[in-house]
Amino acid sequence: MKWARSFVALAATLTVTACDAARTAPAGAPTRSAPAASPSPPAEITLAFAGDVHFAGRTADLLDDPATAFGAISSTLSAADLAMVNLETAVTTGGAPEPKEFHFRAPARAYDAVKAAGVDVVSIANNHALDYGRTGLADTVAAARAAGVPAVGAGADAAAAYRPWITEIRRTRIAVLGFSQVAELWSEWRATDSQAGIAMTRDLPRAVAAVRDARRQADVVVVYVHWGTEGEACPPAEARAFATEMAEAGATMVVGTHAHLLLGDGWLGKTFVQYGLGNFVWWRDDAYSNDTGILRVTLHGPAISKTEFVPATISRRTGRPEPADRENAARIRQEYAGLRACTELAASPAP
Predict the structure, then answer these.
(1) How far, CA to CA in Å, does 21 sit from each of 13, 24, 280, 292?
(2) pTM summary value
(3) Domain spanning 44-342: CATH 3.40.50.2300
(4) Which tens digits make up the pLDDT trace of 320-332?
């Protein structure tokens, strides 16, 4: 190629010139050291988080074509270096329904859909992963493994449920963990040393130990929690207390879902906390709110340099999230900013 040949010729010329200069320099003349190279600035990394996803009711048909299940919002997820959602369903065709009101399950194509949307990791620490018992949970975990989708927050025992997924992006190691704080059946569904289940916030010593261990292994620790009170736009005391525990244990950020509407965000010391991302791919049109969106977090190396909420609205026809138009985007951003008032979070990190 022309540019390659030109480069070789230029390199040869520079080499000869340098050698001639060395030969003609006076004996004993002082030499100059080349200036030390400046350290490279930390690489920019983008993370994207969205809320609750399941494929039932009006969203079940979206899996007829998993490649398009998330629609246009996929471009926002795919653009991030790491994207995450809460997969709030058992992925199984077996098991028996648990003693509770609502039950969700989906075929293994659910994992094809999240992969096609650009999602890199899902949390299965929620109040629906065991809707069809431990048989359903085992199927959910096996289907994730077969699809190549990391799933955090539940597993064959506590070691698996509390284990972080760790990835490296441009020399920055990122650990991701999932927990549930939902009270329903929590003691029956929790993972133990000898029983499959979910990583629960109420097993606080185990949760804190998991985050501290992740902190030792990674530069950035993401904690994704299913918490809050359905229909309430302010985080309950239990959620605020757990966020504090996570911050003290070394979490870089804590992200949440479950309340079926948006909650506020802000800073707890040097830890960024988002209390509720609302529904995302939602099964029926009776939610507390159809406002939703994607939290976009920018890192420079291990440090958070920017956070941004990208508004979206859930389609009443399909249950699929769609980028908000100009008018709705302005409204959602304004309302979202006002949600911080009851979170007890700061607008900026502690110095």
Answers:
(1) 12, 5, 67, 66
(2) 0.89
(3) no
(4) 999 999 999 999 9
